[in-house]
Amino acid sequence: MSIDAKDINFEELGFGYMDLPYRWRAYWKDGQWYKEGLEESNMIPVSEASTAFHYGQNIFEGMKAYRGQDDQIRLFRPDENAKRLNASARRLIMPEYPEEKFIEAVKETVKANADFVPPYGSGATLYIRPFMIGTGDNIGVGPAPEYIFSVFVMPVGPYFKGGFGTSKFVTSEYDRAAPHGTGAAKVAGNYGASLKPGKDAKSEGYADVVYLDPATHTKIEEAGSANFFVIERDGHKFVTPASPSILPSITKKSILYLAENRLGLPVEEGDIFIDDLGRYEEAGAMGTAAVISPIGSITHQGEEHKFDYSDQPGPLTTALYKELTGIQYGDKEAPEGWVVMVD
Ligand SMILES: *Cc1c(COP(=O)(O)O)cnc(C)c1O
């Protein structure tokens, strides 16, 4: 049974699943999408031989809907999520879901569950999870004969406990992706590989894992399920890793633009060596769920490196956070095309 919006305390939400009244579904067979629209059940009956269960044909996206001070509901760069979903689909030989349909599906799902979009100022947002799976009868290794695309939503609070405070991260011996693997695609398999390192880090008291580059283990790649950045002490340069095995974050792309064009910082996509963290004053994680989460320290091979701002968010991390969230909630002017109204 789905939940009633009146029973939710939006200020106290964590990051958890809720069964809301409506979700979008679309079905693909013989080269075409059909039966596209809202459905009420959160269950999906599919063949036991679906490739999603056996061969990892399983891609997803993560986005949010934001309620502004004017009570209007906004999406942040949904065209970018549509493009990335289709890039992931091509990597796993799945059908694309056209960009206009993707945006319509997201808007319709948000509108149908509008009572659940948290109020402005509550600290919560509506998390949106589009995904696609391979289905149908198939047992040999190969792409599925059928597919399902779906979008479901739920209100969520902060991804890391404590919200906008500094967290401690730790490096892992494990990789989330291979040098020429699927790291740049948003595929479920990357997450399967990350469950153990993530759980190990959390059980040792860290917020999440810092992944090093899978080829040499000398450079930082990702911060758990978010992209990574540092601010160099010399010149306050904003630096974020460049690598073909990183998932290209839309938040990262946006922050690169804002750092350069709104804060006037020099920016670089380049190497951040794990043995050379002394050059940086601030560090953080960036993603839809993480927003901007300041990182206070990184422990590597048993030694904790503290950034200059290890107990409280640094000034530039804070300025970037305010700029980004100001745009997302409609309080600050957005660059052309970044904010899409749901109605
Ligand atoms: C989704 C994701 C991100 C963040 O991407 P956004 O578009 O900013 O939400 C970063 N890293 C990984 C591994 C991801 O799956």
From TrEMBL:
Q: Which UniProt keywords apply?
A: Amino-acid biosynthesis, Aminotransferase, Branched-chain amino acid biosynthesis, Pyridoxal phosphate, Transferase
> What GO terms describe the biological role, i.e. biological process, of this protein?
isoleucine biosynthetic process; L-leucine biosynthetic process; L-valine biosynthetic process
Recall the GO molecular function terms of this protein's record: L-isoleucine-2-oxoglutarate transaminase activity; L-leucine-2-oxoglutarate transaminase activity; L-valine-2-oxoglutarate transaminase activity
User: Catalyzes what?
Assistant: L-leucine + 2-oxoglutarate = 4-methyl-2-oxopentanoate + L-glutamate; L-valine + 2-oxoglutarate = 3-methyl-2-oxobutanoate + L-glutamate; L-isoleucine + 2-oxoglutarate = (S)-3-methyl-2-oxopentanoate + L-glutamate
The enzyme class is transferase
For the keyword Transferase, the answer is yes
Q: Which InterPro entries does the UniProt entry name for this protein?
A: Aminotrans_IV (IPR001544), Aminotrans_IV_CS (IPR018300), Aminotransferase-like (IPR036038), B_amino_transII (IPR005786), BCAT-like_C (IPR043132), BCAT-like_N (IPR043131), BCAT_family (IPR033939)
**Part of which pathway?**
Amino-acid biosynthesis; L-valine biosynthesis; L-valine from pyruvate: step 4/4; Amino-acid biosynthesis; L-isoleucine biosynthesis; L-isoleucine from 2-oxobutanoate: step 4/4; Amino-acid biosynthesis; L-leucine biosynthesis; L-leucine from 3-methyl-2-oxobutanoate: step 4/4
State which Enzyme Commission number(s) the record gives.
Answer: 2.6.1.42
The cofactor(s) it depends on are:
pyridoxal 5'-phosphate
| Family in the record | Belongs to the class-IV pyridoxal-phosphate-dependent aminotransferase family.
UniProt name for this protein = Branched-chain-amino-acid aminotransferase
Origin species, per record, is: Aerococcus urinaehominis
